[in-house]
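B., you asked whether I could sanity-check this one before it goes into the benchmark set. Here's the sequence:
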Amino acid sequence: MGLLFLLASSIGKRRVGFYCGIVLLILSLCCLGFSVWQKNSYNKGDEAIVMLPVSSVKSSPSGGKDLFIIHEGTKVKILDSVGSWQNISLADGRQGWIDGSAIEVI
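And here's what the prediction gave me:
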């Protein structure tokens, strides 16, 4: 399109080349923005899979009471971390703390 703008003999063809170049520039910037957004979403690392056969989820990272038990293969969302403890949330809305060695970030 740039060549059409530079080498065109008539003003009409130059206008077409100019406007096509502007449209292509905007389209390229949109594609760049979407790719940066997708990369950031991919690198976020806020989901994990439980790797131990059975893990108890605690009420606090300092060894509070057991809230519930989760099993190997359960997908969790990481909300926060304190030391080696991870605050997790399950798909059904239950939350608690689990030792970081029991999960693998995906």
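One thing to flag: Helices lie at 2-7, 11-43. Otherwise nothing jumped out at me.
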